[in-house]
Task: structure prediction
Amino acid sequence: MHSTPTAFKAQAKAALADPVIRQNFRGAMDFLRGKRQGVFPEQAEFKALQACAETIKQQALDDLPQLLELLEQNCTRNGIQVHWAESAQEANEIIDGLIDQHDGTQVVKGKSMATEEIELNDYLGARGKDCIETDMGEYIVQLAGEHPSHIIMPAIHKNAEEIGQLFHEKVAGVDYTTDVDTLINIGRTQLRERFMAADIGITGVNFAVAETGTLCLVENEGNGRMVSTVPSVHIAVSGIEKVIASLQDTPPLLSLLTRSATGQIITTYFNMISGPRGYGEAERDGPKEVHLVLIDNGRTQAYADEQFRKTLSCIRCGACMNHCPVYTRIGGHAYGTVYPGPIGQIISPHLLGLEQTNDLPTASSLCGACEEVCPVNIPIPNLLQRLRRQSNLGREASTGIRGAGSARSGLEALVWKSWRWACCRPWAYGVVTRVVALARPLLGLVKTPWNKGRATPRPAPKTLNQLLKHRATGSNRTGGAHGNH
Amino acid sequence: MATTKAKAAILNKLRAASSGAVDAAPVSAAPAVPTLVDPLEHFVSLLKANHAQVIQCETARLQTVVTDVLREQGATRVIAAERVLAEFPELTQVAEPLPPGTMEDWKEQLFNEVEVGITSAHCALAATGTLVLRPGADEPRSLSLVPPCHILLLREQTLYNDLTHAMVDQRWAEQMPTNMLLVSGPSKTADIQQTLAYGAHGPRTLVVIILPQ
Result:
């Protein structure tokens, strides 16, 4: 069940052959594309907003070390305790330590890709701590013992029948139904008990505003609010790239995020958290402590390279996957990574290294749809090509990315080397192409990966060179005949 | 402490990489949100499209209107924020204040008994059909979240064109409260087969009462 990026090809093949997966994703992607199109009626307005967001994120990245320090300063002033983690392991240890420190037994979590990335649930589970997902999609995925297949809509791979069956099997006293209102109400009832009893709440962060020390959460369901309001401790987990300079940067980013993600001009809730209960006035509710855990986990590696730094602009809207012809057909699980689709293909190599992920950059037709809809203008196709080169590099070049050169095959390199050699020498090229043309009848018998499911291309009986030469002598003859007149 | 070491390591790596980097282009201005001809009408229609009930009424009729809403909801346990009761004392006829103490003292009542929470809107944003909430000592964060029905009182003159206008005009960046919140409808989800369902975790019903100046 647990998919991995190293088994990408087999997983993609299995997904392609599964009609339910195909149908669920096709339907969902068409729906989300339509919704997005409806809220960007004017391309010019999208372009202007995109240019603004791109520069906001670009500037924030340029000033990243200063902004992170300013964020820490202002959060600390507001009573938010800031923690730093270089790796997933460190982040998990910090969070686990905070839970222990408060004798926490009941942990509820709002939707957060950062905590998926560090596999927090597994880490806490191994230490006997249940961490309950409260976003409806995440709750469904957790009940099924699976992982999200989309970064915005985690249970997009399941239809109502499958979810009805799942609830019937896993939730006590629930009859099978496909009525969505009933299913949501079951989730609501189950989770309200959890919110009330929880002592620790964990969320992600959409934007962290350095200027004011504010953590912003974007959501529709209200579970993010529950998790960050009811338990007495709130732990927010964020990648270091989520910091932005000023509060005034939030309106354009928020507008692009919700419109690109779900085609909403705004989500139901936009929660701006700048401190625990009573930090300033005698509030009667809200968490007594707020913690922010800042995670590196491969981001500084991407940061060190001017081109790859662009990947850190991502605001996690998911538009690239919604518009990707590959994602639409194979779904999110086939990638075997926490972040699937085009954005996952360019950030996973930094999180996991290229050894494990070198098939991912090849899973693209480079059609450019992802770049076209990206709200912060990340040149995804270019970066995919760059990663392809990196993973095929020989020993001659060393680069900053872990696992560079891991997809290099000696045979492939030899083929290309010979090709280059022959192409630079017309006589050799002529000999090779003539031999291939002569061997034409035999080539159909050779088994290559190409002719699995495709007809074997047959070289022409005569090479282009021969044909042109033939035509040239022919036309000379005609020309000569004319001249004789 | 491990986290101090991690901080130094992260910042050092970032500084090493950013030194000598070319500065990015200055932030290009966000396209201005068009100024609405009839902001109130726009605001109301967006809220309604997002499944909120919107009622415009004279302040003198507030109690009657609230009573009607409560009857419609069949509500028996109604709590209003102290801020609301101080501004509209007549509502003490139909709503009670929160019990004394902090959330730990009344959490179970709030989850299990209270059917309606009445709070105030700090201001509103016409372009997106959004209410801005500013919880505080006299208006708990959870009162607009936990009860299944949420009634919000809004003064018409606090309607701004959009988020940027409100935050610039009111200079939010100078002093953010511990919690500030934008609400644009009742709680909802489309996580099951893209089918919209209301009342995911927060209020199923949002009633916005707009009062004149």
